[in-house]
Amino acid sequence: MKGRNAIVTGSTSGIGLAIARALAGEGCNVMLNGLGDANEIEAVRADLAAAAGTKITYNGADVSRPAEVRALVAAARADLGPVDILVNNAGIQHVSALADFPDEQWDRLVAVNLSAAFHASKAVIASMTERRFGRIVNIASVLGLVGAPHKAAYVATKHGLVGLTKSIAIEVAETGVTCNAVCPGMVMTPIIEMQVADQAKVTGLSPEDVVKEVFLQNQPIRRPVTAEEIAGAVVFLCSPAGSGVTGTTLAVDGGYVAR
Known about the structure:
Number of domains: 2
Helix content: 40-55%
Shape: globular
CATH topology of the largest domain: Rossmann fold
Mean pLDDT: 95
Structural class: alpha/beta
CATH superfamily of the largest domain: NAD(P)-binding Rossmann-like Domain
Number of helices: 8
CATH architecture of the largest domain: 3-Layer(aba) Sandwich
Number of strands: 7
Largest sheet: 7 strands, parallel
CATH class of the largest domain: Alpha Beta
């Protein structure tokens, strides 16, 4: 994988940063993307570049805006070269009963969780197929495989992301390009910490009980999956060993869907 060029959306923290770090550790040049404090992001970028010895750049595109997604891909080509690996990781959440679910939050989740992956994949696919190599990995969720209450938009968009994955994979199956989805179980990231607080409000449980009784209730290993475990799955799918795997959903979920 040395010298491959990768984009990882939503990679300034959490799972995305772990994926970027793992790909860089395998010799990839990586474009980071995400929102946050500019000084903190630059520190992350510089540290990752120093540790990996590869080229690490950053683009602050808001992936809810199609034009900015296209600009992100164009910037990666200009800074790194042809895009070999695209990891659509950016995702957001809103927890609410359906009757009270804000319309604007539905639209926002669709834009970030699903439409951004479509626009980014569309922007890279022609070059990948022309060069007969490419890896697209969509970070879905265990909730892309099963349902859950109070998360209508998140569940719907993650199911949609799984469907998008399968469609892309079949379309480019003979071109050397693969497309897969990784479906994490409960991972303790900043977005999950916010979900814990939101669920505590909805259910009346303490944050500790939310983690134990809600998030880990159906995760047989009874611990969060780590961001590094998710990153390891992504590295496998992008590596030569994963070249025969396409159109699949790889559940890194602590046994959640085994029940």
